[in-house]
Amino acid sequence: MEVRHLGNTNFDVIMKCFLSAFDNYFVKMPTDHEFYRRGWKAAGVQYDLSFGMFDEDILVGFIISAIDQRQGHLTAYNSGTGVIPEYRGQRIVKSIYDYALPKLVEHGVTKCQLEVITENEKAIKSYQGIGFKIRKHYKCFKGMVTTEIDNDFILKKVNHQDMDWDALSNQDYYSWDNQKESIAKGHFDCYQVWIKDKIQSYFIMNSESGYVAQFEVFEDSAKQWTILFSAIKSVNRNIRINNIDDRLTHKLKAVEAVGLENTVDQFEMELFI
């Protein structure tokens, strides 16, 4: 077996391996190839800096790498790692990282980052063995927004480039796929929630799917959170929110108050190279 970059590997071959690796996973994974093609494009995946383990011409394991300048580091974000069932127990992920890390350093990468479900103890130990350390604890939610709609707001849809990102709070608490750099390349709508002549809050979501990438209030109160979720509900009441940092206790309380279910928790792990 040998490790090679995935720049010359057909996307359908990668997806066949990916879906096999994530069959019977902790959460049910989408099977639509276009979902991943779009998502990985928004994340900034570079296939020539993504790597796979090949048994002759068969892809049996992989690390999908998004590369971007984030928070002061050229970072390789692991958008997906997996090994097909028949090849597990052979330390393939470690072998891929042993090959990949020098290649990433050659390209100027100084940090690697990934997310892993907290229940996946085997994977966590594997990453820790490579040198990754837990940095953040995230909570994920989904469900129907049950709050009664408070109509005391005006909803304005704005362009991504019109968002005053420097003035928006908690940007360092968002995970890779929810950061402004990924949002700019994804299929998201940006909304401002106004009361009279003042912006009260904002949210960024895929209006069709109900996936909410960012949401914040500018004055932390139960009333303002209720208005924000009323505005979200007016666009799509069936929503999904990934990776709320567990240090944001008021935000978590507000999410739980509108009836969303905590589906899974994740760790963010990082490795400086």
TrEMBL record:
GO molecular function: acyltransferase activity, transferring groups other than amino-acyl groups
All copies of domain N-acetyltransferase, residue ranges: 1-152
Source superkingdom: Bacteria
Keyword Transcription applies: no
UniProt cross-references to PROSITE patterns, sorted A to Z: GNAT
Pfam families: Acetyltransf_1 (PF00583)
Keyword Nucleotidyltransferase: no
SUPFAM superfamilies reported in the protein's UniProt record: Acyl-CoA N-acyltransferases (Nat) (SSF55729)
Keywords: Transferase
Annotated protein name in UniProt: GNAT family N-acetyltransferase
Species per Swiss-Prot/TrEMBL record: Winogradskyella flava
